[in-house]
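User: I'm curious whether this sequence folds into something compact or stays loose and floppy. Could you predict its structure so I can see for myself?
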Amino acid sequence: MSSAANISAPVEADANPFEVERAYRYCRLKTRTHAKSFYFCAHFLPREKRRAIYAVYALCRLVDDEVDEAGVCDEVGARAAVERWQIELDAVYRGESIAASSQVLPVLIAWRDMLSRFSIARELPLELMRGVLMDTYQKTYESWSDLRVYCYRVASIVGLMSSEIFGYREPVTLKYAEALGLAMQLTNILRDVGEDLRLGRIYLPREDLKRFGVTEDELARGEVTEGFRALMAFEIDRARALYHEAERGIPLLDRDARFTVLLAARLYARILDEIERADFDVFTRRAHLSFAGKLCAAPRVWRAARAL
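Assistant: Here's the prediction. I'll summarize afterward.
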């Protein structure tokens, strides 16, 4: 977080319309820069829901970046950063004046405006922060059950917050939102095995590594062995099962959000196809979808969403 010298003057509980618009614009640019697929899918939401989704993403991104930056060498600093975020969010939820750094302030202004339209429980962003902090002290996971806790906190929570913006008919919808978050975060983990190793992190569960005879030394050397291919195929099957479960909840969402969520799920699932196409080499390349690929996929997904 910026030093005290960069703290802005407090913003009163009721920001003026110009400040609110500028805050949402900041959140939109943050999303466009760092989450291209997410940004592409959000385009199809109504304006108020679209802006709210940008605000959710921007907060998640800033917290993650700040904790990552501090946590590389200073777990205490990372915890202090989260505590400051908690204090600032408390002020937002209580309707008090905001005094925050110039980078954080627009997100908090956008959140305050968003909360006047959508009900997102304070506990949800706090739970996400607990998940982000896990990266400062936990570098490996023994089992899928252990990893699932991390995925729930850093991704399913985003799905639960987003569901309050999308709108839904039945409480069970949140169970499917949780599954979609798990699927997407597991997809991230499989795509970023090589990148995470360079940061000293191995998210692949140790029990799965052992099951397929893959050692941490082999991972460190970037070896795509037959055991590693079998391991990745196993994890991809797990992710696909979660995507399949998650899609059952899309018909329960408000109609104007179904296409966006289905498109996000289908596009993210295609990253798994790209990993397979690269023969599971996630050490020297990063699986991704081109903008053209997203455009080509959209009409078919739109027709599927219309049929829900």
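Summary: The mean pLDDT is 90. The radius of gyration is 20 Å.
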